[in-house]
Amino acid sequence: MRAIGLILAGGSSARMKELTKNRATAALPIAGGYRSIDFVLSSMSSSRINKVGVITQYNSKSLTQHLNSSKWWDFGRKKGGLFVFTPTQTHDNSYWYRGTADAIAQNIDFLKSSHEPYVIIASGDCVYKMDYNKVLEYHIAKKADITVVYKQLPPEEDATRFGILKMDEDGRIQDFDEKPMIATGNDVSAGIYVIRRRQLIELIERSAAESRFDFVRDILIRYKGLKRIYGYRM
After folding, report:
1. What is the C-alpha to C-alpha distance for residues 191 and 193, in angstroms, rounded to an integer?
2. What is the 3-state secondary structure (H, E, C) of the chain?
3. I want to staple 227 with a disulfide (CB 3.0 to 4.6 A). Which of 10, 143, 207, 223 is the partner?
4. How confident is the prediction for the chain on average, in pLDDT?
5. 92 burial class (0-12, 13-18, 19+ CB within 10 angstroms)?
C-alpha cells in the first residue's frame, strides 16, 4: 500500500475508571485474547500497510510490552516495521505530549524518513474492521487534502461524546463540532484520517511554530474552509 500507518495510543479515558488506572486504553483486554490496539493493527496489516508507528504516553508499559510480544504482526520488516514512540526529553524539548498534533510533531522524523506518499492516522482504542485501501481510493478520487472517516450513530445514542460532522451533498465537510454540549447531528468522527505525508508534515510544523497542539481543533477545524476535507462513511 502507498501509505504508512500512524496510531495515536497515548491517551487515557476517565470513562473507563478503574480499567485504565494502571494501563493505557489501547492496552485494554478485549474478548480475553486481544488488546484494543490489535483491531487497528489487524486492519493495517490486512490493508498491506508495511510501516506503522505507534505513539504512546499514558501508562505505556503494558502497551509497549504487548507490542513487543506481538510477533504475529508482520509489517514488512525489510522495508517497514512496527515502531513504538514514547515522549523523550531532549536539549530542545522537555514536554510530554501536549496534544495529538504535538505528539506527531515530536516524532516528525518518522514521517520525514518515510517515502510513502500517504499517511493513515488512527486511534489505538477503537474496535472495528476496515479496509484502508478503500478509504485511500476515495481520498484520491475526491482530490481531498484530508479525509475523515465517520460513523452514523443511531438517533438514541449520545453523539456529544464525539466530533460531529456536517457535510454537503458531495461529502465535503462544512463544519466540525468537537464534543458539543448539544448534538446537532449523528454523523460522528471515528478518529481515522487520510492525508498526504508531505502535507501532514507542513501542517504539523506550522501548528508547532504557532504553539498549537491539537490535531482536531488546530488542523481539521481551523482549516475546514481552506482545505478540501471530505468525510468517508464507515
Report:
1. 7
2. CCEEEEEEECCCCHHHHHHHCCCCHHHCEECCCEECHHHHHHHHHHCCCCEEEEEECCCHHHHHHHHHHCCCCCCCCCCCEEEEECCCCCCCCCCCCCCHHHHHHCCHHHHHCCCCCEEEEEECCCCCCCCHHHHHHHHHHCCCCEEEEEEECCCCCCHHHCEEEEECCCCEEEEEEECCCCCCCCEEEEEEEEEEHHHHHHHHHHHHHCCCCCHHHHHHHCCCCCCCEEEEEC
3. 223
4. 88
5. exposed
- Amino acid found at 84: V
Tell which residue, 35, 1, 11, 230, has the closest CA to residue 115: 1
Side chain identity, residue 96: W
Q: pLDDT digit string (tens) for 102-122?
A: 999 999 999 999 999 999 999
* pLDDT the model gives residue 44: 94
Residue type at 29 in one-letter notation: P
Predicted TM-score of the model (pTM) = 0.90
Helix axes 60-69, 37-46, angle to 10 degrees: 40
Which residues, at least 6 apart from 167, have a Cβ–Cβ distance to it below 8 Å?
A: 173, 174, 187, 230, 231
Angstrom distance (rounded) from CA 121 to CA 138: 15
Residue 76 to residue 1: CA distance in whole angstroms: 11
Please give the average per-residue pLDDT across 74-96, as a whole number: 71
Instruction: Supply 91's cell numbers.
Output: 536539549
Instruction: List residues bridging with 188 in a β-sheet.
Output: 151, 164
Report the C-alpha gap between 2 and 14 in whole angstroms. Answer: 36
